[in-house]
Amino acid sequence: GEQFTAYRFALFYIPFFIIFAVSAILVALTCHYTYQVIHNGVSDNKDKHTTYQFKLVNYIIVFLVCWIFAVINRILNAVGLFPYACNLLHTYLSLSHGFYASVAFIYN
């Protein structure tokens, strides 16, 4: 309950923030690198690199989008705020993460 908020943040959310930040940085670096390869003429096969970039970042983007509202909602809940919109997005996107990951898998 209420007395374990510090433990919840220390044991779950801080490692999750680290994973979240590393994922966002890796997506940005991957997009930047493949953009450079595609637009600076390093590669002769630009279509293949564009497809590769799209496939590579899809899963990470799905992860980031589906979990950002869960993290925001839990932080707001920890400080005593319970906004309906954030709670709704947290519930919907957390439950549908597997669906969107499978859509990304099928689409790729």
From TrEMBL:
Any one of the GO CC terms: plasma membrane
Segments traversing the membrane: 12-35, 56-76, 88-107
Keyword Amino-acid biosynthesis annotated: no
GO molecular function annotations of the record: cAMP binding; G protein-coupled receptor activity
GO process annotations (BP): adenylate cyclase-activating G protein-coupled receptor signaling pathway
Keywords in alphabetical order: G-protein coupled receptor, Membrane, Receptor, Transducer, Transmembrane, Transmembrane helix
Keyword Membrane (UniProt): yes
Places the protein is found: Membrane
Membrane topology reported for the UniProt record: Multi-pass membrane protein
Pfam families: Dicty_CAR (PF05462)
InterPro entries (alphabetical): GCR1-cAMP_receptor, GPCR_cAMP
Family, as annotated: Belongs to the G-protein coupled receptor 5 family.
Protein name per its UniProtKB record: cAMP receptor TasA
Source species of the chain: Heterostelium gloeosporum
Gene designation: TasA
